[in-house]
Amino acid sequence: xxxxxxxxxxxxxxxxxxxxxxxxxxxxxxxxxxxxxxxxxxxxxxxxxxxxxxxxxxxxxxxxxxxxxxxxxxxxxxxxxxxxxxxxxxxxxxxxxxxxxxxxxxxxxxxxxxxxxxxxxxxxxxxxxxxxxxxxxxxxxxxxxxxxxxxxxxxxxxxxxxxxxxxxxxxxxxxxxxxxxxxxxxxxxxxxxxxxxxxxxxxxxxxxxxxxxxxxxxxxxxxxxxxxxxxxxxxxxxxxxxxxxxxxxxxxxxxxxxxxxxxxxxxxxxxxxxxxxxxxxxxxx
Length: 285
Known about the structure:
285 residues, alpha/beta, Rossmann fold, 7 helices
């Protein structure tokens, strides 16, 4: 009788059931990843702070060295745009002096001190290492003198008054009269426009040959815009009216030339006839 061999059955290893909410017995303790990230971030921040602190200390040390080393002491002032003041005068006005440290100069404060000077319109300071301070300014241009309320003021070609006339200022400029303090307080824009019209008349006249021979001395403007121009040391008066000024100046030039050719000069030339036919009336001296 045949005997059958039994097959050996290998027992399968038992596998523990996973915990609820976990991935298996090898899961780490809760919160351990966050602790690791926090520690890494703390080390990074500490390193950054250390680098920044060291950089700041180095920068402060370098700045202190720049402020104290004699290498950056001012030895020269390089000036541009100044016609009325020397380099030393400008530096004194700016509040700086030779030997002062370049980096110790407060640029904004010095520029402010310069533009407070009556003749200086704009100012710009800059450092040129190792020992030069550059000062660039622009100055006002005086085109005429305006008389207001018994005082005299210098005005620019744009009609802007920028300082009262003082000793040492140019006094050989045409004088504008007829502007009043009351007019300026009531309607400053209108009064400034009247000054500009006088300046335009002076400019037109100065471009003529007559203007070079008999320079403009005074322009008087009335409230209605009527103008009178006095020329030359002889004080020849041109009564010009309120309009067509350039045309009338050309007429006055012809009249003066004709009379001068005869050895005579007029006292007053009346060109203010506003009729359809332009007439010139001359009053002799």
